[in-house]
Amino acid sequence: PFSPGGEVAGIIVAVGNAVKHLSVGTRVLALSIWGGFAEEINVDASRVFPIPPAMDFITAASTLYTFGTSYHALKDRASLKRGETVLILGAAGGVGSAAIMLAKQMGATVIAAASTADKLVFCKEIGADFCINYNEEDLRARLKSITDDKGVDIVY
Predict the structure, then answer these.
(1) At residue 145, what are phi and psi to the nearest 5 degrees?
(2) Tens of pLDDT, residues 38-55
(3) Cβ distance 142 to 136 under 8 Å?
(4) Tens digit of each residue's pLDDT (9 = 90 or more) over 135-154
(5) Were 91 and a residue from 67, 71, 112, 143 both cysteine, which residue would form a disulfide, CB within 3.0 to 4.6 Å?
(6) E-assigned strands of the chain?
């Protein structure tokens, strides 16, 4: 009666009569809340989005929650503006890495903070301008050094 999984990607096999923006055979991603690990799922059309031809299903199925959460936080809540500086804590996780990529696209300077050197290498590869290993460095002192004592505009 219950199957976990909230993000899905696949090919539409049927659509309701009232659905006009989707058709059978379309490659899509969707927010299902639950049921995503089932072989087939019924999702309200308002939660289904076509994916670009070059995007694979695994990438598509892993984007909405992480990128949606980060976009909402950075744009709708923090009102990130081009030229601002963002500190992203837990930067190597799914939501943190999405925040790095989105903040860079929005024109921010990104400071990534994570717990290991390997995680910070990943953060740098996906666009972080500066990296802080908060297990080995004094976070506050390093932030002051990076920002010339100004601090950051947004902490994520």
Answers:
(1) -65, -45
(2) 999 999 999 999 999 999
(3) no
(4) 999 999 999 999 999 999 99
(5) 112
(6) 7-11, 27-31, 48-50, 85-89, 109-114, 130-133, 154-155
